[in-house]
Design a protein that fits this description.
Number of strands: 26
Distance between the termini: 40 Å
CATH topology: Neuraminidase
Shape: globular
Structural class: mainly beta
Helix content: 10-25%
CATH class: Mainly Beta
Strand content: 35-45%
Length: 393
């Protein structure tokens, strides 16, 4: 004969609660899906691993529609990894996150960097060109699918004087748009969907338009339909591709006054804030700071991202810093610190770590001994790929 359930007096008004054979409260599956749609990537993946009905719902189009409005904020899980080549050494992958393993796609072959120089990367796409050759052809590589698109500049396309810019980026497929601009911001856009260049477009310039060309190593920043280039210490050029209008954004007052480094080297890096506003990262003597433009584009505000001492465990006020590509989806900032090596900063958590101490030599202002490209993905592609690989369990 089974023993009776034990009962105890509750803390209020003599109520009783059952402790044996108690069950957690029942939560309907549709409510769980709603909760997961508002959770971070790791929680969604763990939820998909619980049982098949939830996994089936996450794979369905209704869940993807719930995820579509997600915008703003950084998600560390969207950073898949980074590849690099240093001086004349062998190309290699610096790191790859655990979430990259479930991808069933052909992955990026870092050996490509032995023969091709990375020019710009965004999302899962990397623009490269053959080393040692002045060629009109570049290649756009999808690091998730391995798909390569050859892009040749024809007579109908503008000259590529400004750093090339990836506009629309489709992670799951080879879809992209590549913008080139000459010194007067006459632009052309190559569409992978149509397989050809569009017509040249003459940009409307302000009277105070600056003629300083960005450094070749200065990565552009795309916010919506606007491309931003940091033109050394002269200002920021903002080109609205949808209206073919360009304006000059003044830099924060004296933002580079304390920054040391070789003449001609960029002293900052364009980035976006968590809510999608234009920002400028600056390596000051004792801190890495971030200036963010107000929503009305009227003023800049400054915040300290991290102290240098928190990165390397000591003060290093005279240490030269070269910024490397920014991961707009994960909020990752990569930089090279003279005498320290390769450093990764997470703008979301404001934490940093030294990835390698083998990249201590900065190089010249116009030539970096370290070439690096980031691999990121979008939320839907990541979750869809991981959950599909769970089907076999």
């Amino acid at each position: 004969m089974s023993s009776p359930k034990r009962r105890r007096v509750g803390p209020c008004h003599g109520t009783t609660t059952t402790t044996a054979d108690s069950q957690p409260p029942f939560i309907p599956a549709d409510l769980l899906v709603e909760i997961l749609a508002r959770s971070d990537t790791r929680t969604i993946v763990r939820g998909a691993a619980t049982f098949k009905p939830i996994r089936r719902a996450i794979l369905g189009p209704a869940f993807h529609r719930l995820l579509a409005p997600r915008a703003g904020g950084f998600d560390r899980a969207l950073l898949l990894g980074a590849s690099c080549v240093f001086q004349e050494g062998r190309p290699r992958d610096i790191f790859f996150q655990e979430q990259r393993r479930p991808f069933s796609f052909e992955t990026f072959d870092s050996e490509l960097l032995s023969f091709y120089e990375p020019m710009v990367s965004r999302g899962c796409l990397i623009v490269i060109h053959r080393r040692g050759q002045i060629s009109a052809e570049v290649r756009v590589v999808n690091s998730l699918t391995g798909h390569v698109t050859r892009v040749k500049r024809t007579g109908s396309a503008a000259a590529a004087i400004y750093p090339r810019t990836l506009l629309a980026v489709g992670d799951a497929g080879p879809s992209f748009q590549l913008l080139v601009a000459d010194k007067n911001l006459v632009t052309s856009i190559f569409s992978s969907e149509h397989g050809k260049w569009g017509d040249k477009v003459q940009t409307k310039l302000q009277p105070n338009f600056i003629r300083t060309i960005p450094n070749r190593l200065s990565p552009p920043l795309v916010l919506g339909a606007t491309v931003h280039w940091l033109c050394k210490e002269k200002g920021i050029i903002a080109l609205d591709v949808s209206t073919a209008r360009a304006m000059v954004i003044e830099l924060p007052p004296k933002c580079f006054s304390q920054v040391s480094g070789p003449k001609g080297m960029d002293k900052g890096l364009l980035a976006s804030s968590a809510d999608g506003r234009l920002s400028l990262l600056v390596a000051e003597p004792r801190v890495v700071s971030m200036w963010t433009l107000s929503a009305a584009a009227a003023s800049w505000s400054r915040q300290v991202v991290i102290h240098r001492q928190a990165i390397i465990g000591r003060e290093a006020p005279g240490c030269v810093v070269r910024f490397l590509p920014f991961g707009e989806r994960s909020g990752t900032v990569m930089l090279q610190m003279e005498g320290v090596g390769l450093v990764e900063i997470d703008l979301g958590s404001r934490e940093a770590r030294v990835l390698s101490d083998k990249f201590k030599n900065i190089g010249s202002p116009y030539y970096s001994k370290l070439e690096l490209c980031l691999h990121e993905t979008d939320f839907l592609t990541l979750v869809g790929s991981i959950t599909k690989n769970m089907k076999r369990f």
